[in-house]
Design brief:
The structure holds two protein chains of two kinds. Helix content of chain A is 82%, strand content 0%. Chain A is mainly alpha-helical. In chain A, 45% of the residues are buried. Chain B starts with a helix and ends with a helix. Classes of the chains: A mainly alpha, B mainly alpha. Chains A and B meet through helix 7, helix 8 and helix 9 of A and helix 4 and helix 5 of B.
Chain lengths: 219, 222
């Protein structure tokens, strides 16, 4: 499992493809928001959190699309499927690698967004990292599973968001709320239900992906 | 053969009851009659999605073509019924709430469910009958149902309340007349039969499609 994580990270270190495209895209999405809506009204923690998650979802989906393309194109899919490893571990390895990309992107993006959308009233608490880790974990869990599925079809660029956005709806709602709460240092009681929901989402979809990846990898 | 005839009779009886026999609801008036269909449509659709998951799991276990056909049929008819829910809901909401759409939990959930199963069918369409894609669709059919409870909690925490039409504090409001209860039961039976009939039709259509493909393959070989 860790060797798959190491492999994906090594490819990323050499090329920097995924992270740089993800970040550039995220920046452009922020600009799109600013141009299409009145930028002066997009202020405060709620907008920082909302735009952070929308951007992560949009840019992340495009980046996750690449996750299995390399395996498909280089003919490594069969090698991956023949790997004398539990298929679930392959899924977990891929998910962890994607999670690391998404986390790095989120960490770089957040100060940028705060800078653009105003830092007044922002007093981050430990809820902020908690919400980001739990949110990106669920996103990586769903995104990795569907990205493997979408990579097989002709219209993979369209298919991945089509498949993952509706499934991610509860995650997006919960992640945006908890991140907003974490940004202004709201007490835990206000968002504890949301945090539990995020955790449950991660658990459900990590397990589902781990169990069903057997059927996805098989050709 | 009995199913279409039964569906027809049940539907006509339900329509007669809902539009002629049943009196107007005290508070909402004539528009409340849409609920005799709206509520059942929603339950049938959700039931259909649970069937998609069940038949998908069956397909992954055994690779049975029948299971896959029923998964597809249930998803399609479920999506059709969800579409009807999303049409009948706003028709009622406009005169009662004053708007066609609000971000109420159940509305939000229904529209997200609609998107999940539209994507499910899109995946199948793009697969062109490829075995691997059918297996992926089965995985999505199971994952989709896992999302429903999380979605319900999320939208509940997020937003307010849906009208509890059946239970109201006003003693005069709600389903007071016994014929109203009959209206609910009859339209439930009619829509249940309609759902079953459409699913069986759709599954048979898929079976014929499979046979045609097989024949074409055989004649090619010869």
């Amino acid at each position: 499992m860790w060797s798959i994580v190491r492999k994906d990270l090594a490819i990323e270190r050499r090329t920097g493809e995924m992270l740089s495209s993800l970040l550039l895209l995220a920046l452009l999405v922020v600009l799109l928001f600013a141009f299409s809506l009145e930028p002066e009204r997009l202020r405060g923690a709620e907008f920082v959190a909302g735009i952070l998650w929308t951007t992560l979802l949009l840019a992340g989906t495009l980046a996750l699309n690449r996750s299995f393309v390399l395996e498909r194109e280089a003919g490594a899919w069969t090698a991956l499927a023949l790997c004398p490893l539990d298929r679930g571990s392959i899924y977990l390895g891929k998910t962890i690698a994607n999670l690391i990309f998404l986390l790095v992107a989120a960490v770089l993006l957040l100060p940028l967004l705060a800078l653009f959308l105003g830092t007044t009233g922002i007093a981050p608490s430990w809820l902020l990292p908690a919400s980001i880790v739990l949110g990106t974990a669920g996103f990586a869990a769903v995104g990795t599973l569907f990205s493997a599925m979408a990579s097989r079809t002709r219209a993979r660029e369209v298919l991945l968001p089509l498949l993952s956005f509706p499934i991610l709806a509860p995650l997006l709602i919960a992640a945006a709320r908890t991140t907003a709460a974490g940004l202004v240092g709201e007490p835990l009681e206000h968002v504890s239900a949301w945090l539990v929901l995020l955790g449950a989402f991660d658990l459900v979809f990590l397990t589902a992906g781990w169990l069903t990846f057997d059927y996805v990898l098989e050709e | 053969m009995a199913l279409p005839a039964l569906t027809g009779v049940a539907m006509l009886t339900a329509i007669l009851f809902v539009f002629v026999v049943v009196p107007d609801e005290k508070v909402q008036g004539v528009v409340q009659r849409i609920f005799y269909f709206h509520v059942h449509l929603a339950w049938m659709a959700f039931g259909g999605f649970v069937f998609v998951a069940a038949t998908s799991a069956w397909y992954l276990r055994t690779g049975s073509r029948v299971a896959d056909r029923y998964a597809e049929a249930n998803a399609e008819v479920g999506l059709l019924f969800t579409t009807l829910v999303l049409i009948t809901g706003p028709l009622w909401a406009r005169p009662i709430w004053g708007v066609y759409w609000t971000w109420d939990p159940r509305l939000t959930m229904t529209v997200v469910l609609w998107a999940i199963y539209a994507a499910y069918l899109m995946l199948r369409r793009l697969g062109n009958g490829d075995e691997t894609i059918l297996r992926y669709a089965a995985v999505l059919g199971i994952v989709g149902v896992l999302d429903i409870p999380l979605l319900i909690i999320a939208v509940r925490l997020w937003r307010g309340i849906h009208p509890a039409v059946m239970l109201s504090d006003d003693p005069e409001a709600g389903l007071r007349d016994p014929t109203m209860i009959w209206g609910v039961i009859l339209s439930g039976i009619a829509l249940g039969l309609l759902f079953a009939w459409l699913v069986s039709l759709r599954a048979r259509f898929a079976a014929i499609d499979d046979q045609l493909a097989l024949r074409a393959l055989e004649s090619e070989r010869r």
